[in-house]
Amino acid sequence: MKKTLLFSLFALLGFSASADEGMWLPSQIESQIANMRTLGFKLKAEDIYSTDGASLKDAVVQFGGGCTGNLVSEQGLLLTNHHCGYGQIQQHSSLEHDYLTHGFWAMNQSEELPNPGLTVSILVRMEEVTDQVLAGIDETMPDSVRSAKISANIDSIIARADDGNGYHYSIAPFYYGNQYFMFVSEVFRDVRLVAAPPSAVGKFGGDTDNWMWPRHTGDFSVFRVYADRNNRPADYSPDNVPYRPRRYFEISAEGIQEGDFTWIYGYPGRTNEYILSDAADYIARIGNPHKIALRSLRLDIIQEAQAQDPKIRIQYASKAAGIANAWKKWQGEARGIERLGTVEKKRALEQEFTRWAADRPEYRDIVATLHTLYDSLRPYEFALDYYLEAFNAIELTRFAADIQNASPQRRAALAENFYKDYVPAIDRKVAVVLLARYLEQQPERFIPKNITGQIAHAGEIEAFVDTLFSQSLLASQERFTAMSSEQLEESLKNDPAVVLATQFATVYRTRILPSYRKFTHEINTLYRHYMRGLMEMQPDRTFYPDANSTLRVAYGQIGGYRPADGIRYLPQTTLRGIIEKDNPDIYDYNVPQKLRDLYDSGDFGRWATDGTVPVAFIANNHTTGGNSGSPVLDGRGRLIGLNFDRTWESTMSDVEFDPEVCRNIAVDIRYVLFLIEKLGGAGYLLDEMRIVR
Ligand code: ARG
Ligand code: GLU
Fold first, then answer.
1. Which of the following is catalytic: 121, 628, 630, 653?
2. pTM of the complete model beyond 0.90
3. Stretch 213-233: mean pLDDT
């Protein structure tokens, strides 16, 4: 009710973006502040982003390239997700110290574990550089001249800006190259693992619950950023000291309620909100269904093997998780696009655009040309999907290519890592079904000639794959390790797995990729004009830029939703739900004994709320992959949770956002604090934080 009133108010005020949609640039957040304040935001634009003093942007980090993290103490203490720190936790794990299974809790700074290669990047400032990037460009230039000029301009802008202080500079296009921003950041290279819960907490619910609500995952891990004595980034050294951030997040343990304002500060990876109907149609009706089917085939084979053998269950756990993650996301995305009628809505908009453009020569043919280009692109996009999802999904040939490309010194380590979790019998079955699909779905020009010679009809695939696996010296660890490095060098020239990988790679490189690149490039060039035209045609609409792994603000409210007729989900879960799901026989739901004991004894300390502990909540913030580990903040900019997922019904928000259904999922900060204190016995970490209640 409240919502409807707000919406009509916005309509009157001329807000045409919905209250909760969008990923906004921090330096341009001013345009959203009035709207945010109506919903419950209490701060000013300068609190979010400022270059004159500390602002909340100084407390948000890009973690390891693909995730977000946030700083919570003046000693560089950092919170992100368990699934973001997973690689590091795994690397430090061994049979003697199995941190994945049992968790890891440093009891003081000397016990923290360094992670070579892991970086944390903090934005120093961003500025618009459109005029400089486009200096000397005019619209009559051939595209190649234009692109070369733009890269040259970008290089010289960065060279001029770089004052040798060791900052990292990058320039990214927005709105398909209608606007450019430069990002200056400080990249820290000494980042140490401080704490991680057992996977049975940090990954509770596993792939069964992934992309789902109600959720009970304690998806967090703790790191610390180190700097040199001058507080500047440095390679790992025992002499480094905890980084002193310009700003860190205060934590609110006050509690949250449905309807509360909430916002998210982080690094969303990629969205495509302005694509044409053709592209949305491809995603929902061709790309996703095919990719889902290919992954279903793989998952069926893997899961059957896992069910029969506990060793295989572990060996393929992480692989299956990776396969299932996008598999589930694509299903939600395709369904969401259908449910919203995205393709039809986009078609209507394109017709409107074409009518509007009738007497504007610079825009008149854009939509028609784009349709034609999409028709040309389609077979290549479809082939690319199959190359990646059908051919590249065969582990043996992918390994063959990796080994071939690796330096001789790296091969032994690569092989050891590969064979540790490799079951040839699974891969052989996968190869049979995936190759069969590839041959069935792709035209002859995308199939290596040799293969067509050897496999005349589908009945011959099995024999072909059998020969491959029996003759390849890479298909078994015994055969591989029996080879000397000279023998390996020799066999890499004619091993059937190497040969097959090379044949497919050649088709990909010579017949798929060039046209795929050419058409996508032409399409993106036209999008630049289409986007500008759309902005002219709809002057009252607020356009937010697509996500591109740069820092953004999204805002909305905490709230449940109706996933289906007759069901309404509440916005919060609690520890009680973990105990309800507890089942020692189900791997994903096997609660650690210590957590059971804490529950039984009611030992919740200061985190007790209504006789339990809050665990996770949902809100309608517009997020995507990359927002994992993002701080979820209240109206005063205090940390109330860590973002870690979306519901699978929301995943079409990468193409069209629906505030009624789209929900991001966060772990409640009180659950994180409870776990650190009571499960990990690392309460000393809380003393560093500023917790208000
Ligand atoms: N769906 C989340 C994301 O896209 C979490 C993935 C990790 N968790 C898992 N159970 N596989 O990254
Ligand atoms: N788990 C995702 C990540 O790693 C976030 C989920 C999503 O919104 O796509 O960023």
1. 628
2. yes
3. 98
